[in-house]
Amino acid sequence: MNLEAALYWNSANAAHVDRLIVREGAAQADGRWAAAARALGEGQAQVVLDAAPWCQPAGLPDLTLPRGAFRLPAAPLAGRFYPRLAIEGAGQGARDLRPVRITAVEDMHLSLNPNHPLADAAARLTLRATAAEPAPAARLADLFDGPGLQAPPEDWHAAYGDPAGLGREDEAPDATFYAQPRLIQHLDAACRAEIRALYGRLLTPGARVLDCMASFDSHLPPAAKDCFVAGLGMNAAELEANPLLHERVVKDLNQRSGLPWGPAQFDLAVCTASVEYLQQPLLVLRDLRRVLRPGGCCVLTFSDRWFPSKAIRLWSQLHPFERLGWALGLLREAGFTALHSETLRGLARPADDKYIDQRAHADPLFAAWGTA
């Protein structure tokens, strides 16, 4: 029996689900998990546990440390998470990677919250049997490593909005970089299947769909064959190779952020493994909301693989779960409501994947969406 462990929790602005796939043996690390696995083995469909015992530390007061305790070369930012080892006096040894959120930055001092990111979230932990194949060596404790960091800070602009962070290593025109078609997949098949399943949950019959920053695969489920799908991307050959597209637009959104459609044209907008390349992401998200009908959905998905030279610098500076918080903040600032995030880790990488010798686990899935 394989297990899916999931955390359900809410932040001030969004509902969150974080999932991890593990082998049954991973439950033996804790007696409560082991008891839950036995109940599942006896036929119980799902076991629900309070996640608080594993969201530690909790209940600790804020720490005040000298500003000079911050060891990274960049300036500390209020609202951002940093590994404890980056702040002298905040960790337990030189290898302490547990995250801590800086809550205030003053001339001489830093204030930080030393508690687990989910300490105050009243998270609910569920365990159920799954047919999904887990990667080897995944631990149930890994479920609590990252979730919580995607809760957007109160002052999103102060934490993430510095325009300098949206520069890139390669500032040459994108048209040059994308001139040659890349008719290859950038995510493994397991991650792509989960993206299709997510889009399928958000897709309504006969919907009008906009694939923003599209390529030869829109990652939509088979049901999309009955939908109208428009694709906007950088390479005409890639768009022409996409069999789902009814309309194709070649445009560089980093040169001109406006979308070539009138208001309220679409029911669903998807952006797959691409938001990290936008230098004016907020302008693009606001225009996506404009072209969506009231109640329409915009969903951003990504993983932990990208072109480093073309992604914004901020992307590489953030913890993977913090990137999800940045994306949620973008949606909120753009006017979307009913915000959600979902993550999935721990799946086995397909045996025929070309990177199987480099990583046994599938590419993790991070998704954020909201309603226009």
What does this structure look like?
This protein has 372 residues and is an alpha/beta fold. The chain has three domains: 2-55 and 120-148; 63-113, Thrombin, subunit H (Beta Barrel), CATH 2.40.10; 162-371, 3-Layer(aba) Sandwich (Rossmann fold), CATH 3.40.50.150. It is 19% helix and 27% strand. The protein has eight helices and 15 strands. The protein has helices at residues 31-41, 156-160, 174-177, 189-202, 236-240, 281-291, 313-317, 320-333; strands spanning 2-10, 14-23, 47-50, 63-66, 81-83, 99-105, 109-113, 124-130, 208-214, 228-233, 247-250, 266-272, 292-302, 337-345, 365-371. The strands form two sheets. The chain has an eleven-stranded mixed beta sheet, sandwiched between helices. It has a four-stranded antiparallel beta sheet with strand order 4-7-6-5, with no helix packed on it. The longest helix is centred in the middle third of the chain and has 14 residues, at 189-202. The chain is globular. The model has no long low-confidence stretch (mean pLDDT 93).
Chain-wise SSE layout:
Layout: E1 2-10, E2 14-23, H1 31-41, E3 47-50, E4 63-66, E5 81-83, E6 99-105, E7 109-113, E8 124-130, H2 156-160, H3 174-177, H4 189-202, E9 208-214, E10 228-233, H5 236-240, E11 247-250, E12 266-272, H6 281-291, E13 292-302, H7 313-317, H8 320-333, E14 337-345, E15 365-371
Parallel strand pairs: 2-14, 9-10, 9-12, 10-11, 12-13
Antiparallel strand pairs: 1-2, 1-8, 3-8, 4-7, 5-6, 6-7, 13-15, 14-15
